[in-house]
Amino acid sequence: MPEPEPLAGAPERTRALEILRIHGACTVSFQLLEAGFEYFFHDDGFVAYFDTGQAWVAGGPPIGPAARIRTLAVAFEREAARAGRRVCYFGVEADTVRSLRGKATCVGQQPIWEPAGWPRLRDTSASLRYQLRRAQRKGVVVREVTPGELATDSTTRRGIERVIVRWQGRRPMAPMGFLVDLQPFGHEAERLTLVAERGGRVVGFLAAVPIYGRSGWFFEDLLRADDAPNGTAELLFDAGMQAATRRRSLLVTLGLSPLSGDVPRVLQSARDLAQPLYDFAGLHAFKRKLVPTRWEPVYLVGDHVVCAFFDTLVAFARGSLFRFGLRTFLRGPEVVLHALAVALSAWTVVIAVAAPLQWFPSQTAQTSWIVTHWLVLTGLVELGRRYRPGLAFALATIATVDLVATVLVLATREACPAQSFGQLVLLLCSCAGPMAGSLSLWGLFLRQARGAGRAPRRWRRG
Questions:
Q1: Homologous superfamily of 109-296 in CATH?
Q2: Among the four 41, 49, 280, 331, which has the fewest Cβ within 10 Å?
Q3: What is the dihedral of CA 432, 436, 438, 443, to 10 degrees?
Q4: Predicted confidence (pLDDT) at residue 458 exceeds the cutoff of 50
């Protein structure tokens, strides 16, 4: 595997790391060293931000002496205004909210553990102890990884990459960026990395980054392979807590549980609507199962709440909500399958009542199309219940053949069958429907195949 490309702006990140070691008290502070961030330095502090083109979305609050947070924020906002950008801060914690101008909106909460008290909490949870024993009985062993083992061509690193690729391949949403981008490598000497192995194969990993200003650790990435035994994630977390205890750390967090806790009602509604694409409830339930000592609120701060939320979404979407939505659609998530099934059922009724000689070469062709659509509809319903690669491949192939056949029929007709605007819309739908179905179904098939396959030969940092 080739060497990863060097991070752009390495001198800036070196300078930022020096400041972080002294003043980095926010959970997300170490993530600001990852690719994708730009930097604004002012005196002995800095702000790391993502430029959406319309706004500078800061990751957490300004990093610097506590007494100078407001000064740093004012300088940053003045520079953003000169660049014609709005400003908001995502991932701000309660101790720095008052130092920032703008309205603070709770966007979730993060669980906090005190490593010294972990053995007592673990021993009081029967379900947690059961999960740990399940993984151990299946032969899962967790060990700490040395920085040298994360070299580009090492077996351990390739195993971690394979878990990441398979995990991302199973997610219905396209990979996001900003503060949830998966970047478990870089500054390895500062990190804490553990792997779960079974039979010498990596089946999960935990990547933790330091919270210097609180003598703590942020367990940033905790992933397991789909075929890893139950309890693997819990076993990794337990080993991470023990490692934090050996280092005399004061706290551990798993980071933001988005849209949980005392969030505004509109965000609760957004959480419910987005549930088919992102399992907010499942993520929160997993963190709660690990019996945290307490929960701390996390805020988004901005002058205009609606603009701040929109700008933050664009940052997480890697700069474009349209491209992110298109990439998600092309992955064929379950909600898209349901939408295709509803649209196809309505479309089948439309072509069933259409005049055959105007729209089809013959009545036999019309009947064949109706039967084919009902078979595809049945397959979509079944695929939404349980994914099967053979069925996905067959449906994608049929949708592609349907598209080609529709185009050929229209291309070989002497006159356009559409005689009005409404009929023209139907004509466009006859091509757009199978095209959308074909793209989404092939995307689903390929995503699931990647999720079950090997890591790519090239792994880029950033």
A1: Gcn5-related N-acetyltransferase (GNAT) (3.40.630.30)
A2: 41
A3: 160
A4: no
